[in-house]
Known about the structure:
The chain has 191 residues and is an all-alpha fold. The chain is built from nine helices and no strands.
Amino acid sequence: xxxxxxxxxxxxxxxxxxxxxxxxxxxxxxxxxxxxxxxxxxxxxxxxxxxxxxxxxxxxxxxxxxxxxxxxxxxxxxxxxxxxxxxxxxxxxxxxxxxxxxxxxxxxxxxxxxxxxxxxxxxxxxxxxxxxxxxxxxxxxxxxxxxxxxxxxxxxxxxxxxxxxxxxxxxxxxxxxxxxxxxxxxxxxxx
Length: 191
């Protein structure tokens, strides 16, 4: 006959996503502002991964997946912003290796498959997609993602690729090192 007391929290729980602020002091070194503005590799490696993800791209990929689920299932706008910020950060980082970009391509293309078509125009930031797919270091490697975006937002990508072009792009992606950033002194991913 013992009654248990129900404890009601006095404050709302807070979901603490990784703070990604592209034009912040943390994102751009004072002596490399132009370089860091154009290429986010230093910010990704030395701030985001090191301080928030234990140097693990897979941890960042996990946050990417969690953010999209919150955006789609709960209509959480902040989660949609976080999802876009993570994608933009990775796409605008030149030193992320092809193996991780292929993994990202698979993750994102599968994510795009679950977005209900009527929500696509609301949830998907067309400017970010145009930047990532047409004007980034890895846009040409995001073959599966490009195909999904073409279906959801056909006007974002001006020319459609036929299947032979997509197969040719996939075959041209040769593995670099085993994992992590490219051999230009960048990040090495754990197995």
